[in-house]
């Protein structure tokens, strides 16, 4: 067993050495840069080779917990850490979701706190004095419009279609 596998197994006890060996082999088979880093745009596809049932937003949330050493790139240790966070699984509520006040429920025509939580996401950053609320219905419709309007575009068509049920639109629009 290589020292990388042993080191990573100690760091992430939720992963067995044979799991880590598989993760390392898959990572090494990916299109990496000269410094053995994976472009974050390819992270979801790479993780789904190991965890095929994982959804875009779950992978994105796990990546947010990882401190990456190079902007826009994921190195082996960070890739393993993403997988470890996914395997640990957050059993609690989704981060960033807020409960609604009864007046907001009536105003939106939503019949329960649970329905409101499913349709509204509160995004905020630590140490910031503001927060941005995103309505999921609007995000989905906006994403559908982008997919329709830019389908086949010679400059950015390779990024489409974007899944309207995930937060991928924000990652794709980042640059």
Q: Care to describe what's here?
A:
With 175 residues, the chain is mainly alpha-helical. It is built from nine helices and four strands. It has a two-stranded antiparallel sheet with strand order 1-2. The longest helix is centred in the C-terminal third of the chain and has 14 residues, at 136-149. The radius of gyration is 19 Å and the shape is elongated. The N and C termini lie far apart (41 Å). This is Fimbrin.
Task: Offer a concise description of the structure.
This protein has about 180 residues and is mainly α. The chain is built from nine helices and four strands, in the order ααβααβαααββαα.
Topology, pairings included?
Layout: H1 3-11, H2 17-29, E1 38-39, H3 43-50, H4 56-64, E2 73-74, H5 76-88, H6 102-108, H7 113-119, E3 120-124, E4 131-135, H8 136-149, H9 168-172
Antiparallel strand pairs: 1-2, 3-4
